[in-house]
Amino acid sequence: MDSRGWVPATAGNISVRLPDGRIAITRSGFHKGFIPEDGVMTVDLDGRPEQSNLRPSAETGLHCGIYRRFPQAGAALHGHSVPATVLSRLAGPQVTLAGYELLKAFPGLPTHEAAIRLPVLENDQDIARLQARVTEAWDADPAHPPGYLIRGHGVYVWAEDMPGALLRLEALEFMLACELEARRLPR
Ligand SMILES: CSCCC(=O)C(=O)COP(=O)(O)O
Ligand SMILES: [Zn+2]
């Protein structure tokens, strides 16, 4: 993610669900391209840290929201790429991605003829309130994809495991960059 420019400064966070149900997540404030050995810690499904002297990602509540809602989710990634940030500022309540071959990286989309509606949530420093908005968007659209945008902030994506989440993020970033490029072209 760092080599792609998706986690500038200390942006972004990364988590996995451990076999015993705990969540391993990046600690807050570290550069995600230079995560030290002790730069990852564990929290429970409600985001409570096991090591009370360490601070988990400020966005732990969003990762836990994913794991609580989707029992199959095993890894979640959050980045602040230019396409995710700019498109989320230009978009309405959702971004529709249609006609891309890479849509096949998302579940249940066997052909490029399908489409996904990516929710765009208003940003909020109150993570519990932001998660409530995310939950509302999931409830409103049962066909929601395993990802969403936060306006002016970035993207979240999840999958069964870390390679799957990275693959999905890469596909999504590619399509968001294409959307941005398309908006630059004269109509
Ligand atoms: C400097 S980025 C602002 C916080 C943020 O949006 C982010 O993704 C990183 O926060 P964390 O607490 O996980 O380091
Ligand atoms: Zn962030």
Question: What does this protein look like?
Answer:
Its cofactor is Zn(2+). One of its GO terms (molecular function) is methylthioribulose 1-phosphate dehydratase activity. Zn(2+) binds at residues 78, 80. The protein is of the alpha+beta class and 187 residues long. The protein has a single domain (13-184), classed as 3-Layer(aba) Sandwich (L-fuculose-1-phosphate Aldolase). The chain contains four helices and eight strands, in the order βββαβαββαββα. The chain has helices at residues 60-69, 82-90, 127-140, 162-184; strands at residues 13-17, 23-26, 40-43, 75-79, 94-98, 115-121, 147-150, 154-159. Strands 3-2-1-4-8-7-6-5 form an eight-stranded mixed beta sheet, sandwiched between helices. β7 (147-150) and β8 (154-159) form a beta hairpin. The radius of gyration is 16 Å and the shape is globular. The model has no long low-confidence stretch (mean pLDDT 96). The protein binds ligand L4RZE5RM and zinc ion. Residues 9-13, 26, 28-29, 57-59, 78 line the site of the ligand CSCCC(=O)C(=O)COP(=O)(O)O.
Low-confidence parts: none
How many structural domains does the protein architecture include? 1
Note the total helix count.
4
Q: What would CATH call the architecture?
A: 3-Layer(aba) Sandwich
Determine and state the CATH class.
Answer: Alpha Beta
Q: Which radius of gyration do the C-alpha atoms yield?
A: 16 Å
Largest sheet: 8 strands, mixed
- Give the spatial strand order of the biggest sheet: 3-2-1-4-8-7-6-5
Beta strands, count: 8
Pfam family, one: Aldolase_II
Catalytic activity: 5-(methylsulfanyl)-D-ribulose 1-phosphate = 5-methylsulfanyl-2,3-dioxopentyl phosphate + H2O; L-ribulose 5-phosphate = D-xylulose 5-phosphate
Pathway: Amino-acid biosynthesis; L-methionine biosynthesis via salvage pathway; L-methionine from S-methyl-5-thio-alpha-D-ribose 1-phosphate: step 2/6
Function: Catalyzes the dehydration of methylthioribulose-1-phosphate (MTRu-1-P) into 2,3-diketo-5-methylthiopentyl-1-phosphate (DK-MTP-1-P).
